[in-house]
Amino acid sequence: MRRFGWLRVTGAFLVAAGLQALGSVLIEGYSEPFAIRAQLVLSSLLAVAAVGQTLVVIVGGIDLSVPFVIGFANVVAAQLYGDGWPFPLVCLVVAVLAAGIGAINGFLSAALKVHPLILTLGVGTAVQGAVLLWTAGFPTGSAPEGLTKFVSIGAQAWMLPVPWLVPATFVLLLAMMLMLARTPFGRRMYALGANPVAARYALIGPVRMWTLTYALSAVFAAAAGVLLLGFTGSAYADVGQPYLFQSIAAVVIGGTALTGGQGGYLGTVAGALVLTEINTLLIGLGLQPSMVQAALGAVIIVLVSLYGRAAHVRTMI
Amino acid sequence: MPLITRETRVALVLLVLLVALNVALNPARFAPSAWGTLLGLAAPLICAALASMPAILGGRGGIDVSVGPAMGFINAVLIKTLVIDSGITSAWVLVPSALVMGAGIGAVNGAIATLVRVQPIIATLGTYLVLSGLTLTLLPAPLGGAPDWLKALSGAWSILPLVVLAVAWLGFKRLPLYEQLLATGSDDRAAYSAGVNVTAVRFLSYVVTGLFVGVAALVLTALIGSADPTIGPNFTLLAISSAALGGVSLAGGRGGFLAAAVGAIDIFLLQSALTYFNVSTFVLQISYGLILVASICINALPSVLPKRGAA
Fold this sequence. Notes:
The structure holds two protein chains of two kinds. By secondary structure, chain A is mainly α. Chain A has one domain (about 1-310): ABC transporter involved in vitamin B12 uptake, BtuC, CATH 1.10.3470. Chain A contains 14 helices and no strands. Chain A starts with a helix and ends in a 10-residue tail after the last helix. By secondary structure, chain B is mainly alpha-helical. Chain B has one domain (about 40-265). The chains are: A mainly alpha, B mainly alpha. The interface between A and B is large, with 54 and 57 residues.
């Protein structure tokens, strides 16, 4: 089973590399340094947004509040920074609020055994409404210069020709892999996702685990929202919407099964690369945005059917 | 299974409260003479919720998130391709076309989700993107021109599509397929061991979902009287929320026609009452989210509380 998981992750990386090669052949300038840098930055943003989705899928849930929390963090951070708050304090406040939202998601889903799909959607909808109400629909504020530089495609991190976001995402990847594979919390997540009943006998409290995991998920979604503020320069409550389906697609393309208990963050990073590659390639080929969307849908199905298929019932008995 | 499950009872209580609230707030809008129009307004959501239900009943993550875009796609093809480009306005062509397109989309979803075994939410997310992309390509901007007989389906005759769906569902319940679908949704391994062709049953549940989507698309077209490429996708999450609110278990095996319909009417009445207060759309959105969360939590309470004594 473990070996099969690695196969899927390797497969996703190979698909990303194949798409890069295909793009270089078909489109002039596809492998120019600037184009590659842009792809890395966009993939990193998606990868950060999909951390939370990966974690909640591993414990057997799903989080539809990701885009709303991204928008929430985006708007609140801009507003508070615009009001003259110091930026580290802004980040702290946003992270704490996001953790609270996530904790509500996880606690209610687990304690009441409600399907997280609808619950996170409801909480997310309410959160976005609250943000819009607070800003009266017209968010103001700005991003600190350091943040813009952190994510800007043209920026440099020391010797590296990429902004700090890219090495930071790499560190995040290592930290996540370490957490999932080597900490008791990570192992409990897999145990709970694989078999909730057995996990209970192993004294793994589902309510506590879900509350923590969803809180973590929301904190990372909030981080993506703050990073997007630096990327676009101004606040926009709907900035997270594309990440609703993209975060789920990145997780699944990376080989993490939505049934829980399997997969990992390395796969999600591969999935983020694949999705960014497909998007860039299709736009580069001159397709209309609506056709890009249609082709993206078809490609997701084809990719997942290549290496992300679920087991047949007869193998589960 | 009893006709009205405990979960649906909560939704029914909510329904009674919401009807009373709406009638008290706005008697003119809810007077008997306006019932046809009112039902016409609610019908697209009711049909969409009914359509999302069969796929959910099949269990193991069974869900069809492409319901909304599929409605939008069929709406666009009906008006743009058939009525405007080909000049076909006959009900004998348009109605079967909508049903065939719906069933076709359902069969594709079902094949990807059950034969290829891509997880249903991803499979139908893929067709969600494909259908909404195709709709926007076919129809970059809204376009008018639904035939008069179709427009009448959102006014005086708005009850007709719902009656047709109810009769169809009653017929479906008499088929062995219905029992097999509930068995599969409750415990697919037990159903498989008992000789149920789990794959075929789930595949057919997507086809039924697709057929209902065809009806939902007709009802939507009747209401808006035109083709609109952006209106469809909104229905997906509303429809699934409606079904869940009415007591269709997203884990499969529980729920039915009444549950999905009551859930959808609840959400429609909720929006209607909130709109009446003339609050900002933001307050509307907050209340909508909170009420959704509150009602599914209330739905879940009875199944959680007794266990404390047992454990």
